[in-house]
Amino acid sequence: MSKTVHTALLRPEAESRSTVAGDFPLDQNVIHHFPPGSKVLSAEKYGSSAWTVTARVSVELSNGTLMRYFVKCATEEAGRRMMEGEFAAMTELYKTLPSFIPKPLAWGKFQTEDPPTFFFLCDFVDMSNQMPDPDRLCAHVAELHRTSVSPTGQFRFQIRTCQGRTPQATEWNSSWTSFFTKLLAHVMTLDFEINGPWEDLKQIEDRTLSHVIPRLIGALEADGRSIKPSLIHADLWDGNTGTSYDTGDVYVFDAGSYYAHNEMEVAMWRCPYNKISSKIYTKTYFRLYGMSDPAEEWEDRNRMYSVYYNIIYSINHTTNGKSVRQL
């Protein structure tokens, strides 16, 4: 799918079909979502992505105001899942904490059918890729977790979102322990399908599902305790954050959200490929949003949750999959 989208959208004949200035072939179905009376000035390739093609679009509104938008495209059924999921996730995040998210506008399908191509459209925010300020990032993350409300009071999301290009098992569940078990089992299965069998690993994973999770994660819901379903970004690594050049505000994007135990979010900061791994981020977050009880088991929960992200990394980056499995 990733090779297809880059081949389809960046080939010279695709660019020659576009009626808009620039090196990105902007489709009419994307243009349809701009405010009425808008004039598209240019569409330029912007940024890089392994599985999508991205662009910045400059538009003059009917009142003469200049606006810029960000568009991301992917192909085939996998691309549809990614674009639909990202729009749903970013919309839910924006409804909860709009100061943290570039405003999502639409998702849809190109007019072209060769190959079927799908897009996600949002406001463009000019951002640096510097490491996010811990106080600003963690204040937003804690507020998101604290103020978000699951529409059913359960864990999950209204559609399947993707982490990278991998669809997540996010069916509604009233129990976090049950939800997390199914979430993790799903990616364990995908990992074996993509990276091949490994009997020793399978035995450990089976034991984790049958014994470790019921004891370690189940303790969160034992003895009268309960877990609030919090909306999480769910792919919060340094590459999905940016700092506005204009305001210094921290933004996040490329979300794979669902309603989860809030500690699931910060477990990704444990992963070796994530530069948001300095202890200052975790310490700042927990200063703003305390650990769940039993607090003395937080370190073990954090390690358990991080396994999910490492397995997905193994699935999404097959060239590194076997080495990631050995972490």
Q: Give the strand tally.
A: 12
* Approximate helicity band: 40-55%
H-E order = HHHEEEHEEEHEEHHEEEEHHHH
Q: Which geometry do the CA atoms define?
A: globular
Low-confidence stretches: none
Give a verbal description of the structure.
The chain is α+β, with helices and mostly antiparallel strands. It has eleven helices and twelve strands. It has helices spanning 2-10, 12-17, 28-31, 76-96, 134-147, 176-195, 199-216, 263-267, 279-288, 298-316, 321-325; strands spanning 39-45, 53-60, 66-75, 104-113, 116-123, 127-128, 162-163, 166-167, 230-232, 241-244, 250-252, 258-260. The strands form four sheets. A five-stranded antiparallel sheet has the order 1-2-3-5-4. A three-stranded antiparallel sheet has the order 6-10-11. The longest helix has 21 residues, at 76-96. The mean pLDDT is 93.
Name a few traits of the molecule.
about 325 residues; 3-stranded antiparallel sheet; 11 helices; alpha+beta
Short overview:
This protein has 327 residues and is an alpha+beta fold.
Task: Give the secondary structure arrangement, pairings included.
Layout: H1 2-10, H2 12-17, H3 28-31, E1 39-45, E2 53-60, E3 66-75, H4 76-96, E4 104-113, E5 116-123, E6 127-128, H5 134-147, E7 162-163, E8 166-167, H6 176-195, H7 199-216, E9 230-232, E10 241-244, E11 250-252, E12 258-260, H8 263-267, H9 279-288, H10 298-316, H11 321-325
Antiparallel strand pairs: 1-2, 2-3, 3-5, 4-5, 6-10, 7-8, 9-12, 10-11
Helix pairs in contact: 5-9, 6-7, 6-10
